[in-house]
Amino acid sequence: MKKVVCALLLATGALFMSCNKDNAKGNLTVTGNVDGFKQGKLYLYQIQDTVFKAIDSLTIKGDSKFKFTLNIDSPEVFFLTLDRGHTNSQDNQIMFFAEPGQMTINTTLKNFYSDAKVTGSKSQEVYDDYLKTRSLIIEKQNNLLVDIFNAEKENNITKKDSLNNLSKKLTIRKYLNAVNFAITHKESDASPYIALTDLYDANTKLLDTIYKSLSTDVLKHKYGKQLDEYIKERKAAEAQAPQVQPTSTEAQQ
């Protein structure tokens, strides 16, 4: 299970395995358009047994529209990946939260990720809302890093320490934001996904709280099951870990 969590965390850096053309029928259809994309390939990736695997591909020749059809048991994250050919561009992948039904992904060749508009998935809408709350905190952290760097250049130790303390508070805030969002959105499959990716190193009791808050349907779905398995593994590892003996002072307290 820890390998699954690692695979989720490394999602944006993952690339190619093999393609599968056996998805002619399914309960999910993903259509869209990559404006400006005239020739090349689009791949659809999925995490299978901790490995990113290309489950389908489509060759683009002139028409920038695309369509993928597949079967999924429950809402799940997939990755639409663009093969630009001979280019150093890193803007080649769109993560999207798929669920049974009809989905649309429209974007551009120039800004494949940042211009992407994904519709047709409630799970995607919830996850987008989470990313917005997280990005506000991350932006403040990035600004603080600049201020800390300038304080170092000025050799202003007092200012640097103050900024570092503020940075730590923002880290805690980002962490608590993820916890609160996951618990508040217990009906969404985005909640266990957030727990597995952004809270994987959280206290086991906290992960347990998130898990127990999830709706019955989400508990039956892919990420609900993975979160349950991950928590059980964490508890088993903690039970086997050597216990730290308290000092004589701690024992008296």
Describe it.
The chain has two domains: 2-120, Immunoglobulin-like (Sandwich), CATH 2.60.40.1120; 124-240, no CATH class. Mean pLDDT is 87; it is low at 12-23 and 248-253. The protein has helices spanning 2-9, 122-153, 157-184, 190-198, 204-213, 216-220, 222-240, 248-252, and strands at 28-35, 39-48, 51-61, 65-70, 76-83, 93-98, 101-108, 117-119. The chain is built from eight helices and eight strands, in the order αββββββββααααααα. The strands form two sheets. Strands 4-1-7-8 form a four-stranded mixed beta sheet, with helices on one face. The chain is α+β, with helices and mostly antiparallel strands. α2 runs antiparallel to α3 (157-184) and α3 (157-184) packs antiparallel against α4 (190-198).
List the helices and strands and how they pair.
Elements: H1 2-9, E1 28-35, E2 39-48, E3 51-61, E4 65-70, E5 76-83, E6 93-98, E7 101-108, E8 117-119, H2 122-153, H3 157-184, H4 190-198, H5 204-213, H6 216-220, H7 222-240, H8 248-252
Parallel strand pairs: 1-7
Antiparallel strand pairs: 1-4, 2-3, 2-5, 5-6, 7-8
Helix pairs in contact: 2-3, 3-4, 4-7, 5-7
